[in-house]
Design a protein that fits this description.
Helices cover 44% and strands 18% of the residues. It is built from 14 helices and 12 strands. Helix 4 links the parallel strand 3 and strand 4. Helix 3 packs parallel to helix 6. The protein is globular and about 60 Å long. The N and C termini lie far apart (62 Å).
């Protein structure tokens, strides 16, 4: 027993700092080290990493973020400032989206709590400190490559995200930290979390970390990275305006979950969690038209039950599934059809909206998917 106690104490020292809330582990120190190197937020860089290599990564990242600012954020932010009603809930839910704070904070700068849900795992926050310096440079370059695609096309491919999962870095967390930097925020606290039986948020303890390492024991390379990433599927990140210690804290949680009906019937924890959030705003894009299909009826119904205002590309809730006495939709940009497989009924409904409504310009290239003719488009779904 004494040996086990010593082992867990070592885990606490190496992997995180015991929180004042019970024995939850706060990964704030590891997060700040990761943010300094991967998100280039100006914090102190671990001396074991090559300074020139980190500077080169940061130069590349800064160039990408400058392109994001010029191409998308500069025209998008005033557009959304005028578009989003002042009484929109400050709790935001982003289904089928992972770590896309670049978009979420541009659309909802006043948000106080954000939850994203996707098939992607948050990632092991400890992996950064375990990565050899030379290997780190290679993996950071891969993350820059995929971030560049996100900035250029305003959505991520699932295949790219699966590839990143095999690296030792917590990709979803890295993209979240970069989103904070881009919008002038700083990370404050980080916890690995999961949902309990009733949808309550549970923070990982030192014993959970030891169990995760035991489950990944014997695995090597990408197999080990994937296993640990899945074991650290959810996280809770708090943040505030950079340089203002008195600024209110905002909370971002990410959960890995399959939102199909059959999966939710077997495991309804995420539904219980979402119902506990009260009324919320909704953001979704590049969601493979899943909300149009009959096998995603449960999550669609919950979004319509609790959602107050929704912004999306064409992959949001279709007019086919809306009660016209309760909901109305406004469309922006141009839409000539979906570029991925979707329902014919859903396409006809959206084409009808574009044919009958006034032409409303979209001041940036894309919001999620383009249409079949590579037009940018956007849909607002609001309660009457």
């Amino acid at each position: 027993m004494r040996a086990l106690a010593l082992a867990l104490a070592c885990v606490c020292v190496l992997l995180g700092r015991a929180s004042a809330q019970g024995d939850a582990v706060d990964f704030g120190d590891a997060m700040r080290g990761l943010s300094a190197v991967a998100a280039c937020d100006g914090g102190p860089v671990d001396a074991r990493f090559d300074a020139a290599a980190v500077r080169a990564h940061c130069a590349g990242l800064d160039a990408l973020l400058a392109d994001y600012e010029r191409r998308w954020a500069k025209p998008a932010q005033p557009f959304f400032e005028a578009l989003v009603p002042a009484d929109t809930p400050t709790t935001v839910v982003y289904p089928f989206g992972g770590a896309d704070l670049l978009t979420a904070l541009a659309v909802f700068p006043r948000l106080e709590a954000l939850t994203s849900i996707s098939l992607e795992a948050g990632g092991d926050p400890r992996s950064f400190s375990r990565t050899p310096p030379g290997e780190l440079v290679r993996h950071l370059a891969l993350h820059r490559k995929f971030l560049g695609r996100l900035i250029r096309f305003n959505h991520s491919r699932t295949l790219d995200l699966l590839l990143l999962k095999g690296t030792p870095l917590p990709s979803q967390l890295i993209f979240a930290l970069i989103g904070l930097k881009a919008h002038g925020y700083e990370p404050v606290g980080l916890y690995a979390v999961r949902l309990g039986p009733d949808g309550q948020v549970e923070r990982y303890t030192a014993a959970d970390l030891a169990a995760a390492d035991g489950a990944a024991g014997g695995l090597k390379g990408s197999a080990r990275h994937r296993k640990l990433n899945d074991l650290f599927a959810g996280y809770e990140l708090t943040f505030r305006k950079r340089g203002d210690a008195g600024a209110p804290l905002k909370t971002y949680r990410h959960f890995q979950a399959n939102l199909a009906d059959d999966a939710l019937a077997k495991d309804g924890r995420v539904l219980a969690y979402l119902r506990a959030q009260g009324r919320f705003a909704v953001l979704t894009k590049a969601a493979s038209y899943l909300l149009w299909w009959s096998n995603f009826e449960t999550i669609r119904g919950l979004l319509l039950e609790r959602g107050a205002w929704m912004v999306s590309d064409s992959t949001g809730v279709s007019a086919v599934h809306l009660d016209p006495a309760v909901w109305t939709q406004e469309v922006y940009g141009r839409f000539a059809g979906t570029f991925l497989k979707s329902s014919a009924e859903g396409q006809r409904a959206l084409l009808g909206l574009y044919a009958t409504q006034p032409k409303r310009p979209l001041p940036f290239d894309f919001f999620g998917y383009p249409d079949v003719k590579v037009h940018g488009h956007l849909v607002v779904t609001r309660r009457k």
